[in-house]
Amino acid sequence: MKKGDHLFLVDGSGFIFRAFHAIPPLNRKSDGLPVNAVSGFCNMLWKLLTDARDTSVGVTPTHFAVIFDYSSKTFRNDLYDKYKANRTAPPEDLIPQFGLIRHATRAFNLPCIEMEGFEADDLIATYARMAEEAGGDVTIVSSDKDLMQLLTPCVSMYDSMKDKQIGIPEVIEKWGVPPAKMIDLQALTGDSTDNVPGIPGIGPKTAAQLLEEFGDLDTLLARAGEIKQVKRRENILANADLARLSRELVTLKTDVPVETPLDALDLHPQDGPKLVAFLKAMEFTSLTRRVAAATDTDADAVETAHVPVEGGAQAHGPDLDKGEAAGTAPAGAPAAEASPETAEEAAKVLRQAPVLPVETGATPQALAQSRAEAFATAPIDRSTYVTIRDVATLQSWIAAAREAGLVAFDTETNSLDAMQADLVGFSLAIADNSRDASGTSIRAAYVPLLHKSGVGDLLGGGLVENQIPDGQAIALLKDLLEDPAVLVVAQNMKYDYLVMKRQGVEIARFDDTMLMSYVSDAGANTHGMDALSEHWLGHQPIPFKDVAGSGKSMVTFDYVDIDRATAYAAEDADVTLRLWHVLKPRLAAKKLVRVYERLERPLVPVLARMEERGISIDRQILSRLSGELAQGAARLEAEIHELAGESFNIGSPKQLGDILFGKMGLPGASKTKTGQWSTSAQVLEDLALSGHDLPRRIVDWRQLTKLKSTYTDALPGFVHPKTGRVHTSYALAATTTGRLSSSEPNLQNIPIRTTEGRKIRTAFISTPGHKLISADYSQIELRVLAHVADIPQLRQAFADGIDIHAMTASEMFGVPVEGMPSEIRRRAKAINFGIIYGISAFGLANQLSIERSEAGDYIKRYFERFPGIRDYMDATKAFARENGYVETIFGRRAHYPDIRSSNPSVRAFNERAAINAPIQGSAADVIRRAMVQMEPALEAAKLSDRCRMLLQVHDELIFEVEDADIDKAIPLIVSVMENAAMPALDMRVPLKVDARAAHNWDEAH
């Protein structure tokens, strides 16, 4: 190696674990061999090699090596027998991939280097020193802080996952010390991952301050008696030997007697046929195609390589860091502050498994795994399903369900609207231990009640014969479903709960498989029954369209042939019961029982009752508003045509694009996949903010026409024919963060910042003798931010009841709160709320109509004034990248698997979402807790019959209350909402609720 050469040293072990956790489980189709880590490793390595010049680190390597850990035992274990003693064994799926990855490295024509007794970091340190002494430059491809001690003007690091260079300035910015002092800093702080002791109680910031004051570790230890803080002084004096030991453990060896000389690390071109042969053996079709094209190789002509699969204890694989295995949160990362599941709660979950026996001492993780394996291979036999047509048979099934204490239940109706659906039939599923003692055999049945024959119905009758009269069947079912000794399992229980409640049946005790999946995997998977069945059971249920048809030929379920209905409906119950067995223990295994039991399941009956109550609307107000909106839209349409110089269909994206970009040549033009000009809302908003009048009028026209079509014209059509009220439907599992959504109609999206939007709210009214109470959390997301990021200024302002936006403006701009100009406060408000959503300088500039540089200065100043917010954001992103999820203050998890995406825009979007999720999700959890606590509080105050909770919209609850009880109801509602976090969590910032009563929603808000 000579001056001017450049050596790339890839931390192969780091690549392995990053790849394994970044790529979902992937198995080779031919034999089921797990290959997700191999796939990720190969793709990362190929990208690094092919993109180095243009898009990665900006240099072309002349020398290249991939360095691996040989095993977990090294010379450091002789120094300290507890070194890395807390690491766990690698996941079973990863073990056979260690050897394959070494084969992959050689297939890439790259040196594959490891050495018994030494860690990969020591080999990297040695080669880096050798290259630097030879006059070359070095790039270490890793983000591991342990390697930062090696950085010099000639040695840098590159984080390929973030596409980020790490040099001396970046180390100083991150750790507060230069690379030369990283050894001493780590000796003081220790490392829980590697079980390096350090000095207890000394964190990175304190360590950096001490090193800045005393210079180095030896001087610090020699002069520790000068430290003014008594506890810190005593701590350092008492643990000085641990610090010295820790320094030995973290210091990388730069003189390892490496077997492969530096000059042997020359980078050679990839051998196309050799690499393609390996990739074909792994069955990586896409990468094979890319490599073949890049290396001018005919993949079809290359024979698939024989790649042996190595087993062995670890296949020379290192132990897995606890953080990598279990998702341990780094210091400062957001975590649930509610106490974790107790042993009693976990045991309770295990006991709720009356079918499959649990061995003594079985852990939740073991049970979850064994259940998943058992039901993934258990066959589903539709031929065993039964149609129940007589009372005696139904009674015997209900008796068996009672005996088991567990039954899956599903309703079949003729409408998706639970408030208008007729109960056409229902299905049951219970364990069939007589057929299979393992507990994986399920027997299921369908009970038809109101199936019709089409011909008969046209003649005025038409019920199919041999169906149990619905009243008689429901009476028998009532005894079962209202029995608190029976656990009723359903998929999307809220729908079935409301359907049955309208039949006079209130299900006493239930579980919901959809919500179990949602709690465990929000953001990672979908939670519909068909998707869950395919994922967990390997079974594809009968599609609804195969039973009821689709399009114009689709019929409601009451016209489906009973035999076909039985196959479909009984299968739903069968699958649901199997999913329960798989998903229930996962809650305990992932320590999420508390989230399910306290935030999800209790909300089901609460929402069902709210949906049943509905709310009144004034049709005359809506009719008048429709007319006003139509006039406003017509006026804008005329102005738009005048500005455009011609008439055109404003609602046509093609015609609009041709006017804006084809005829007028406005900037910012881009085309969609179909080749049309993009006229999205963002495109038009950007043009409008740039001062273009026509796009602004179009944005306003779209707003008015949407309000008219979505609300003023549509809302009367949602009025229930019997109740005369509007009944929205809430979805619990529709968002990643835990926020509820509503549909039919969607009441969450009525704009409240426009005059027209507020006018729509005036149409939501109370009935005579009542008023609506709107109780709204004040700035709850900012309060949550102040709590989780622990911002002293914000906490104090909220505690003192100070105007938070004015306080922020005063902190940032040095303007007194008294007499503050409204424009200054408005800018601070935009930044306050923008920070929560990860706003960029570009976005803030658009929002405030200022230069991007000025907006960037605002954001920079904001983080300088409130450094805890930046720390929170950095810690949250790091935690999300490491674990794939973030947590709310109550332990809810929101998964963002794409946060590790190689696509910068996708990655950035997921980072912003991950930062926001703990804030928005915690606020959503608070209002969920308030809703669950509200009804018992109203009942205790003897107000439940006269004060009824009707709607939840974002951070607001709407009640209908008798006039005489308003003064009693408002303080009670406010108290429940403001104390909703208790007793699980005593927030550092007080919650505040504003509540008012009026005849319509707008006046009450």
UniProtKB/TrEMBL annotation:
<dbReference type="InterPro" id="IPR036279">
    <property type="entry name" value="5-3_exonuclease_C_sf"/>
</dbReference>
<feature type="region of interest" description="Disordered">
    <location>
        <begin position="310"/>
        <end position="341"/>
    </location>
</feature>
<keyword id="KW-0238">DNA-binding</keyword>
<keyword id="KW-0378">Hydrolase</keyword>
<feature type="domain" description="5'-3' exonuclease">
    <location>
        <begin position="5"/>
        <end position="268"/>
    </location>
</feature>
<keyword id="KW-0540">Nuclease</keyword>
<dbReference type="InterPro" id="IPR020046">
    <property type="entry name" value="5-3_exonucl_a-hlix_arch_N"/>
</dbReference>
<dbReference type="GO" id="GO:0006302">
    <property type="term" value="P:double-strand break repair"/>
</dbReference>
<protein>
    <recommendedName>
        <fullName>DNA polymerase I</fullName>
        <ecNumber>2.7.7.7</ecNumber>
    </recommendedName>
</protein>
<feature type="domain" description="Exonuclease">
    <location>
        <begin position="405"/>
        <end position="589"/>
    </location>
</feature>
<feature type="domain" description="DNA-directed DNA polymerase family A palm">
    <location>
        <begin position="757"/>
        <end position="965"/>
    </location>
</feature>
<dbReference type="GO" id="GO:0003887">
    <property type="term" value="F:DNA-directed DNA polymerase activity"/>
</dbReference>
<dbReference type="InterPro" id="IPR013520">
    <property type="entry name" value="Ribonucl_H"/>
</dbReference>
<keyword id="KW-0808">Transferase</keyword>
<dbReference type="InterPro" id="IPR020045">
    <property type="entry name" value="DNA_polI_H3TH"/>
</dbReference>
<dbReference type="GO" id="GO:0008409">
    <property type="term" value="F:5'-3' exonuclease activity"/>
</dbReference>
<feature type="compositionally biased region" description="Low complexity">
    <location>
        <begin position="325"/>
        <end position="341"/>
    </location>
</feature>
<dbReference type="InterPro" id="IPR018320">
    <property type="entry name" value="DNA_polymerase_1"/>
</dbReference>
<dbReference type="InterPro" id="IPR002298">
    <property type="entry name" value="DNA_polymerase_A"/>
</dbReference>
<comment type="similarity">
    <text>Belongs to the DNA polymerase type-A family.</text>
</comment>
<dbReference type="InterPro" id="IPR002421">
    <property type="entry name" value="5-3_exonuclease"/>
</dbReference>
<dbReference type="InterPro" id="IPR008918">
    <property type="entry name" value="HhH2"/>
</dbReference>
<keyword id="KW-0269">Exonuclease</keyword>
<keyword id="KW-0235">DNA replication</keyword>
<dbReference type="GO" id="GO:0003677">
    <property type="term" value="F:DNA binding"/>
</dbReference>
<dbReference type="InterPro" id="IPR036397">
    <property type="entry name" value="RNaseH_sf"/>
</dbReference>
<dbReference type="InterPro" id="IPR043502">
    <property type="entry name" value="DNA/RNA_pol_sf"/>
</dbReference>
<dbReference type="InterPro" id="IPR029060">
    <property type="entry name" value="PIN-like_dom_sf"/>
</dbReference>
<comment type="function">
    <text>In addition to polymerase activity, this DNA polymerase exhibits 3'-5' and 5'-3' exonuclease activity.</text>
</comment>
<dbReference type="InterPro" id="IPR012337">
    <property type="entry name" value="RNaseH-like_sf"/>
</dbReference>
<dbReference type="Pfam" id="PF00476">
    <property type="entry name" value="DNA_pol_A"/>
</dbReference>
<dbReference type="InterPro" id="IPR019760">
    <property type="entry name" value="DNA-dir_DNA_pol_A_CS"/>
</dbReference>
<comment type="subunit">
    <text>Single-chain monomer with multiple functions.</text>
</comment>
<dbReference type="GO" id="GO:0006261">
    <property type="term" value="P:DNA-templated DNA replication"/>
</dbReference>
<dbReference type="Pfam" id="PF01612">
    <property type="entry name" value="DNA_pol_A_exo1"/>
</dbReference>
<dbReference type="InterPro" id="IPR002562">
    <property type="entry name" value="3'-5'_exonuclease_dom"/>
</dbReference>
<keyword id="KW-0234">DNA repair</keyword>
<feature type="domain" description="3'-5' exonuclease">
    <location>
        <begin position="385"/>
        <end position="588"/>
    </location>
</feature>
<dbReference type="GO" id="GO:0008408">
    <property type="term" value="F:3'-5' exonuclease activity"/>
</dbReference>
<keyword id="KW-0548">Nucleotidyltransferase</keyword>
<dbReference type="Pfam" id="PF02739">
    <property type="entry name" value="5_3_exonuc_N"/>
</dbReference>
<keyword id="KW-0227">DNA damage</keyword>
